[in-house]
Every structure is written in structure tokens, then in C-alpha cells.
Amino acid sequence: MSQENSYNQNANERTSLFELPRYVEKRLNEFNIENFVYSEFNNITKIGSGASAIVYSADYAGHKYALKSLNTNLSLGHREIRRFIRELKILNEVNHENIIKLYGVSKCSQTDNLICVPQQMKS
């Protein structure tokens, strides 16, 4: 049985640390979602938090972005990972003035947490 098939078989199982990055990377590549190098973000400032993520403001190559960092990848089950990837896919495909644009993803070098890199909303 392939890893992807075993990954999708039981949505209640927790994913291994080795399986998660390969699965996520494969899916993001399929959707042509850009990967940002985390170490190149500057002026990272926390601007909010919720039940599943912390949101930061950051500069990257002269532009301002939001960083939506999942609280922890270690406790994510298959269902949560699929939901996160589905959210990224939808945001990547939608182009509407009332919906924030997804620019890509990154991975925090200190925590290995997945980070969504959406447009930063104007305050």
C-alpha cells in the first residue's frame, strides 16, 4: 500500500513526523503553491491569534505579508492536514477583491510549523 493511500485511509490517526512533510510538499507542488524561505522574512510581529493559528506581519523582498502559523504540526491529524491543504488550494485558485490572496507557504525553521503566507489585510 502506498504512503498516500495509507495516509488517507484513517482520518483519525495521527500522522508521523516523517510522513507529514512529504505528503504536504507533494500536495502543494500539485497545486503550484509557492514556497517562501522562512529565514528571508524580516520584521516579524505578532498581530493576532486564534484556536489553531497565530498571525504575524512580516516583510519579504520589500513587500508586506501576513504569516498564519499553525499552532503545532505535531498534533495535527489527517483530517486537519487535509483541511489545511484544501484551504490553501481554494485560496490559491480564488481571485476576488473581497477575498485575501494566498501568496504561498513557508515552514518555520524554529518550530517546523506550517505557515500560510496570505495577503496582509489593510487595517
Automatic annotation (TrEMBL):
ATP binds at residue 68. Transmembrane segments: none annotated. Gene3D superfamilies: Transferase(Phosphotransferase) domain 1 (1.10.510.10). SUPFAM superfamilies: Protein kinase-like (PK-like). Keywords: ATP-binding, Nucleotide-binding. Residues 41-123 form the Protein kinase domain. PROSITE patterns: PROTEIN_KINASE_ATP, PROTEIN_KINASE_DOM. GO terms for molecular function: ATP binding; protein kinase activity. It comes from the Eukaryota. This is 14757_t:CDS:1. The lineage of its organism: Eukaryota, Fungi, Fungi incertae sedis, Mucoromycota, Glomeromycotina.
